[in-house]
Amino acid sequence: MHKPVRNAWKFCRRHLSVGTQPKPVLSTKETLTDLFGRYHNYLRISLTERCNLRCQYCMPEEGVKLTEKPHLLTTDEVIKIARLFVKEGVDKIRLTGGEPTIRKDLPDIIYNLKQIEGLKTVAMTTNGLVLTKQLVALQKAGLDIVNVSWTHLLLRSMKKLQEEKAGIG
Ligand code: SF4
Questions:
Q1: What is the pTM (predicted TM-score) of this model?
Q2: 88 CB near ligand 1 (under 6 Å)
Q3: How many Å separate Cα 75 from the centre of its chain?
Q4: Per-residue DSSP letters for 106-122?
Q5: Does the pLDDT at position 102 exceed 90?
Q6: Of all helices (H) and strands (E), which one includes residue 46?
Q7: Is the residue at 14 inside a domain?
Q8: Mutate which of 46, 51, 155 to test ligand 1's pocket (most atoms within 8 Å of Cβ)?
Q9: The Radical SAM core domain covers which part of the protein (predicted)?
Q10: Residue 146, pLDDT score
Q11: Which end of the chain is less congested by CB atoms within 10 angstroms, N or C?
């Protein structure tokens, strides 16, 4: 696990994290170099805590306390923060959640991120539930990489297997 860059966390602890370049690169950008000399070029932005699935370990049946809307990043704030980080050397941003596809402004966010000079890659991690409906629009907006997380399917399969073994499936 990498240590988060102090300056980055100051922006919004709940919604931002930074990734480390595997090999340290020579750079004059000192802001995103941590105390171990690792240069961070990769930023993850969580667009929402909400999700259209209910994986037990993440969204228990009794629910979780969600952040009120006024405290969530708006489209403009996401872009503004992204610009600041790109200025400091970030060249890859990954959009995550919760589930990022439930944000109606997702294509706008991606499009505006792609306009930022110096940002090479905009990626997204999704549970894939509505991907077939949204993929074309997201691609048109400029999305470079999609990672589909299968954790929820894996958990369901394991639960089914356990139920079958116990004779309750
Ligand atoms: S798909 Fe991901 S974000 Fe959604 S409930 Fe499952 S683990 Fe949580």
A1: 0.78
A2: no
A3: 14
A4: HHHHHHHHHTSTT--EE
A5: yes
A6: strand 42-46
A7: no
A8: 51
A9: 35-169
A10: 97
A11: N
